[in-house]
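As a warm-up, study this chain.
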Amino acid sequence: MDLTQLEIFRAIAEEGSVTAAAERLHRVPSNISTRLRQLENELGVALFSREKLRLHITDAGRTLLDYALRILALTEEARERVSSQKPAGIFTLGSIESTAAVRLPPLIARYHQTWPEVELDLSTGPSGDMTDGLLAGQFSAVFTEGPPRHPQLEGIPVFAEEMVLISSLNHPPVSSAADIAGSTIYAFRANCSYRRLFENWFARDNAAPGKIFEMESYHGIVACVSAGAGLAMIPQSMLQSMPGRDSVLAWPLAGKRGHLHIWLVWRKDSHSANLQAMVKLLKSDRKIPTGQPESDSIPV
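Now compare it with the structure written out below.
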């Protein structure tokens, strides 16, 4: 099993067909099929199931893909470290939705202006997906709620954030979770750290929400809350940036329970020039909240 086989395997897994993978890698389909067959014979397992012109990855294939992504990411990092100390090439970033929408646009614009040879690739999703993607080698770094709790991760706090409870305009005052026990709430999927904060807020007050509706966007959440269909907890910075901010009331959580920090997080074995440049830029902008601990090994 060599790097070329892993690159071919990754392309097939991501494209879903030999033909698309061949086009992406500028190879003939017969070569792609042969290399895949050799890899499957070497491993003694089927990596894909065949259905007409489509390939569906098997459980064994998913296991290999996890390793392949990490191996290829480390290989690319090694090339960068050895060949150049100047930021260049693809820099894959992940971010939770609210940070990407409110905090990152000016930061990314300045990064691009400073290092035009870097191709920034930004993906967004729930915090759990971002952490999993980082560990799997899909991202070079991610912006997510911190501090990181996985032993393979480290990072620095970069943005102060406050979560607020939002309700319709005619809703009575809310001072604790007990005030809205049994109420319908709107939230993202269970792997979202903001949802966990919301649920923990109820638990600390020995209260419980009613029906939990999972939503895919903040705009949808605010629209439902403004119509009086339930309540939600969202970042104050996100609410302030939305057109519907005047259609809801925002209630702070008592005892500053809604205060948290967004961190830039990376794997401990990752110290690429692109990552170093991002950390330097964040420090020069004085974005790092005062009084917060930094990693013992910031790659700068």
